[in-house]
Amino acid sequence: MLRCQDIVELLDAYLDGALDAADAAALGAHLAGCEDCMAFMKTYRGTVRKSRELSERQLPPELRERLLTFLSGRTRPPSLRERFLTFLDHRKRP
Ligand SMILES: [Zn+2]
C-alpha cells in the first residue's frame, strides 16, 4: 500500500500522462481510499486548468506585462512535492 508521501511522485507523472498502467492502478487505489490525496488532486487539477485558460485568453497588454513581471520575480516556485506536503500538514492539523 502506498503512503501519501509516495503519491506525489505518481501524481506528477499521472498529470503529465506519463504513468504506466501498474502505477496508475496503484494511484487509483490509494485515491479511492484517501480523502486527503483526492482533495489535493482535485485542487491541483483545477489549478492546472485555470492557468491554461489564462494563457489561452487574450490578456490586456498592461495586465500581461504585470503578470510576466510577477512571474519572473518568483525565482523558485514551490515544487509539487512541497505543495503537497504543506497541504497534508494543514489538513492534519486540528
Ligand atoms: Zn493519501
Supply the number of structural domains: 1
Number of E-state strands: 0
Could you estimate the helical fraction of the residues in percent?
Answer: over 70%
Q: Strand share of the residues?
A: under 5%
From the structure provided, what is the oligomeric state, counting identical versus distinct chains?
single chain
Small molecules bound = zinc ion
Number of helices: 5
Mean pLDDT: 78
Which structural class do you get from the secondary structure elements?
mainly alpha
Q: For the report, how would you describe the main beta sheet?
A: none
> End-to-end span in angstroms?
26 Å
Brief summary of the model shown:
The chain has 94 residues and is an all-alpha fold. 79% of the residues lie in helices and 0% in strands.
What topology emerges from the helices and strands here?
Elements: H1 4-16, H2 21-33, H3 35-56, H4 61-73, H5 80-92
Helix pairs in contact: 1-2, 1-3, 1-5, 2-3
The structure holds zinc ion (ZN).
What attributes does this structure have?
binds zinc ion; 79% helix
Please tell me about this protein's structure:
The chain is mainly α and 94 residues long. The chain has one domain. 79% of the residues lie in helices and 0% in strands. It has 5 helices and no strands. α1 (4-16) packs across α2, α1 (4-16) crosses α5 and α2 crosses α3 (35-56). The longest helix is centred in the middle third of the chain and has 22 residues, at 35-56. The chain is elongated, with a radius of gyration of 16 Å. The structure holds zinc ion. Zinc ion binds at residues 4, 7, 30, 34, 36-37.
